[in-house]
Amino acid sequence: PVPDTPAIGMTALGPNVPNPFNPRTEIRFELREAGRTRLTIFDARGMLVRRLVDADLGAGPHRRTWDGRDDAGRAASSGTYLYRLDSAGETRSRKMLLMR
Predict the structure, then answer these.
(1) Residue whose C-alpha is closest to residue 32's, from 2, 1, 51, 5
(2) For residue 65, what is the DSSP state?
(3) Is 95's pLDDT higher than 90?
(4) Which helix (H) or strand (E) holds 23?
């Protein structure tokens, strides 16, 4: 029998575009395998601001837009934010800057 081939590639989280941004920015990411995926945004204090993705997604490239609002629809203030991708046991994160 032929041994299982390991997955090629890895989960990747790209820089948001544009950065700095106002009022919206696009976040691109690529999943090496299908599965439960979370893309969340946190403020500089580590508080959850917005949950952009919390769903099962397929392997491959994806993109989501953040409109600078929190989960309640309120405009987030200017500042540095962290966006974090959790999928297939991997975590990636990057910083972005919202300028109102």
Answers:
(1) 5
(2) E
(3) yes
(4) none
Q: Is the pLDDT of residue 8 over 90?
A: no
Hey, how many other C-beta atoms are within 10 angstroms of the C-beta on 13?
19
Specify whether the CB–CB gap between 37 and 27 falls below 8 A: no
Scan for tokens 């990411």, then name that residue. 29
Tens-place pLDDT, residues 13-66:
999 999 999 999 999 999 999 999 999 999 999 999 999 999 999 999 999 999
Q: How many CB atoms lie within 10 A of CB 65?
A: 11
Q: How many residues does the chain have?
A: 100
Q: Which two tokens stand for residue 37?
A: 């995926």
